[in-house]
Amino acid sequence: MYKKIFLFSMLGILFLACKKNDVKNPDITQETGKAKILFDHTVNNEAVEFEILKYTNEAGNPYMLTEIMYFISDVKFHSGSGETISINKWKSNHYVDLAIPSTLKWEIYDDIPVGTYDSISFTFGFNEVDNKSFLFVNPPEVNMFWPEILGGGFHYMMINGRWETPTDVLKPFNFHLGIGQTYSGQTAHTDSIVGYVHNHFRVSLPLTNFKIEKSQLKSVQLEMKLENWFSNPHAFDFNYWGGDIMQKQPAMLQAKENGWNVFTIKN
């Protein structure tokens, strides 16, 4: 009888010891650092300039720029070992407006685990789950709303400016990207909308020597090459598409497909 009691007591002690070893030490925390994204904008490798008719796109349209605003969202850092760190603890999106200098840098709220990361990825604009009306209620972001009848949510991007026609007339253009529409007829009337097209796309860029160190702030300089919005694979022609593309899904599709090499990491 005593031998049985002793045996069960020993088994109980071993069980409790094993359970104790399974519990992680609450005093051990993962070492982390911080990351910051800096936004840069160029045309033909030179800093963008506004209100000057100095650019020509691949289709041969002379043009000037007046405003540039856009969103990136769902940012992730990727390591060579396959680990992915998502930016989502406080705010997973960022608004960039060249008229507001403070938006040209984003000090990410999340703590990033110490380590080396070999790429960064993000969604240009918002995916269909995140792109909801009333996501923003205050300016400047609220000014990017996309009309409810055209799909709702928010613009992914606004690039505004003017282009010169073959008859030397300056006309305004609104190169806006967001939710597209399909129509039942040949004319894009809002009462003939039969479906919506989400034109967001994913961007993935390599990082070189990007190492997060304990309690340190590491910067990534993200460059938008604006001329690439109008070329490769499509020579976007303002004379053909006109100044507004919000209700022209084929034109927005060209913009989306041209976006594949708009961004690069600037060393």
Account of the protein in words:
It is a single chain. This protein has 267 residues and is mainly β. It has helices at residues 2-22, 238-241, 249-258, and strands at residues 32-43, 46-47, 55-56, 62-78, 84-86, 93-97, 105-107, 112-113, 115-124, 157-164, 170-177, 180-183, 193-197, 201-212, 217-225, 263-265. The chain has one domain (32-265). The protein has three helices and 16 strands. The strands form three sheets. Strands 3, 4, 5, 6, 9, 10, 11 and 14 form an eight-stranded antiparallel sheet that branches. A hairpin with a 5-residue loop joins strand 4 (62-78) and strand 5. The radius of gyration is 25 Å and the shape is globular. The relative contact order is 0.19. Residues 1-27 have low confidence and may be disordered.
